[in-house]
């Protein structure tokens, strides 16, 4: 045993005097080095706890139950913790769930109900699928393809080269998915819900063509402007790669024909996407289709369960996203969302403004309240019909109001790293730090609102939507 590992043994076996003063660590133990603190970051923890405590003891507004208010306090404290990260995200979420159970704000079953929601599992399954693409070298879905491009340009997550290309590319692709989701009725799971609620509320139908016709002009404008804005404010250091096509051709040639595993991976992807598209006819939902695809990969050995267990980001994302879904869901269950909607109705309706200004205020409240939601569909289900009813009552053309609310229900997903299903996947690539993700998310939200209400408003006037 080395002498310095045991000071007493060192004294007994060595006749030379020991410099006790130099051997005493800051902990007061001779010869034992001080271990780095592996626990919570104190200042971020205090900020999170202080947020929850202050809100907890504020007077409960009229019309809100004490349990709903206390859940809001814990939810906001968890959000602050997720932003400041006193611990990894999954650990912060577990602390939040633990607080809901400890304070009897939620039962254990309710607190962990988010783990039964299909969305977190669908995200985790997407990570497991990506293992197959990495193992086989078959980059056939968008995020693995983007990550492969980043790596090829020497931009890797976690080694200080993120800003060479990956940070800008990942953030741009993510914001692009929010825009493309707003452009077509079938592009996001919550869009058919918006159309259904529109019919139930104002008895008007939004068809696929109606949606695409209204969204195509502002959508294309956003797809052009948003990457340019991000290029200016968050530029990559690698701005050109003239050799990329040549290198791609050379690597493709060197790879030779498809291997057995690549064929299996490609066939599994086609099967899974086919079930996602036509699963409604077969009564197969998206998560079931993804599980079936993963089972094929596991059975054929393209992906092993050990590799799935080692995908730490997937399990961490599953944990914190499920926790937020549970808390956000019970905020709605406890009536806080309904109270908020009714309060907005009374406030905006009492201002006596024109319908244009009133609708603008409603849109901003609807859009930025998404910070409190971990799902676009959940936000739509909780607030879409109420805000559409208010807008119509204040004189906004009903179909116009419905379609604008539906478009913004997608664009608001770009605010946070948990606001829409694709957000945790892109954020989990670890190219963009959380402060930048939120900061640029807010900036792009302003850009999108200007484009969609400005260029979009003129286009909607031209096509007679208002």
TrEMBL record:
InterPro entries the record matches: CitT-rel, SLC13A/DASS
Spell out the GO cellular component terms annotated for this protein, sorted alphabetically and separated by semicolons: chloroplast inner membrane
Transmembrane segments annotated in the record for this chain: 40-59, 71-99, 119-146, 167-191, 211-234, 263-281, 287-306, 318-341, 347-368, 380-408, 437-460
- Top-rank taxon, per record: Eukaryota
Where is it mostly found? Answer: plastid
* PANTHER family per the UniProt record, alphabetical: DICARBOXYLATE TRANSPORTER 2.1, CHLOROPLASTIC
The reply on keyword Plastid is yes
Q: How does it sit in the membrane?
A: Multi-pass membrane protein
Family the UniProt entry places it in: Belongs to the SLC13A/DASS transporter (TC 2.A.47) family. DIT1 subfamily.
Q: Which GO terms describe its molecular function?
A: malate transmembrane transporter activity
The protein depicted here goes by the name Uncharacterized protein
Q: What is the lineage of its organism?
A: Eukaryota, Viridiplantae, Streptophyta, Embryophyta, Tracheophyta
Q: Which cell locations does it reside in? A: Plastid, Chloroplast inner membrane
Q: Does the keyword Transmembrane apply?
A: yes
Q: Which organism is it from?
A: Kingdonia uniflora
Which keywords accompany this UniProt record? Membrane, Plastid, Plastid inner membrane, Transmembrane, Transmembrane helix
Give a single Pfam family match: Na_sulph_symp
């Amino acid at each position: 045993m080395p002498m310095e590992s045991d000071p007493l043994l060192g004294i007994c076996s060595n006749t030379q005097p020991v410099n006790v003063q130099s051997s005493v660590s800051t902990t007061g133990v001779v010869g034992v080095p001080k271990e780095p603190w592996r626990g919570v970051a104190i200042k971020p923890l205090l900020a999170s706890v202080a947020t929850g405590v202050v809100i907890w003891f504020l007077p409960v507004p009229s019309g809100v139950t004490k349990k709903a208010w206390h859940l809001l306090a814990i939810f906001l404290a968890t959000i602050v913790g997720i932003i400041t990260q006193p611990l990894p995200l999954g650990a912060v979420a577990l602390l939040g769930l633990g607080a809901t159970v400890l304070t009897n704000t939620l039962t254990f079953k309710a607190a962990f109900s988010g783990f039964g929601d299909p969305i977190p599992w669908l995200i985790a399954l997407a990570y497991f699928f990506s293992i197959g693409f990495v193992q086989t070298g078959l980059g056939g879905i968008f995020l693995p393809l983007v990550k492969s491009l980043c790596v090829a340009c020497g931009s890797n997550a976690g080694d200080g080269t993120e800003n060479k290309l990956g940070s800008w590319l990942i953030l741009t692709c993510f914001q692009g998915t929010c825009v493309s989701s707003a452009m077509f009725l079938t592009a996001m799971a919550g869009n058919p819900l918006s159309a259904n609620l529109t019919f139930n509320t104002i008895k008007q139908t939004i068809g696929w063509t109606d949606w695409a016709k209204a969204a195509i002009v502002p959508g294309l404008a956003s797809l052009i402007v948003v990457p340019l804005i991000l290029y200016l404010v968050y530029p990559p250091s690698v701005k050109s790669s003239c050799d990329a096509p040549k290198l791609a051709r050379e690597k493709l040639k060197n790879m030779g024909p498809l291997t057995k595993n690549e064929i299996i991976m490609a066939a599994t992807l086609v099967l899974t996407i086919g079930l996602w598209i036509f699963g409604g006819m077969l009564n197969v939902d998206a998560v079931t289709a993804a599980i079936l695809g993963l089972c094929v990969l596991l059975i054929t050995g393209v992906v092993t369960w050990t590799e799935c267990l080692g995908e730490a980001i997937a399990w961490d994302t599953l944990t914190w996203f499920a926790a937020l879904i549970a808390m956000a869901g019970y905020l709605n269950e406890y009536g806080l969302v309904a109270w908020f909607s009714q309060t907005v109705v009374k406030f905006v309706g009492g201002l006596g403004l024109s319908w244009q200004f009133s609708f603008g205020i409603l849109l901003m409240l609807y859009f930025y309240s998404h910070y409190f939601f971990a799902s676009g569909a959940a936000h739509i289900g909780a607030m879409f019909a109420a805000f559409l009813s208010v807008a119509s009552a204040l004189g906004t053309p009903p179909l116009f109001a419905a379609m604008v609310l539906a478009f913004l229900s997608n664009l608001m997903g770009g605010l946070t790293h948990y606001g829409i299903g694709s957000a945790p996947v892109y954020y989990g690539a670890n190219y963009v730090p959380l402060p930048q993700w939120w900061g640029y998310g807010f900036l792009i939200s302003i850009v999108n609102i200007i484009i969609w209400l400005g260029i979009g408003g003129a286009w909607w006037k031209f096509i007679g939507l208002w």
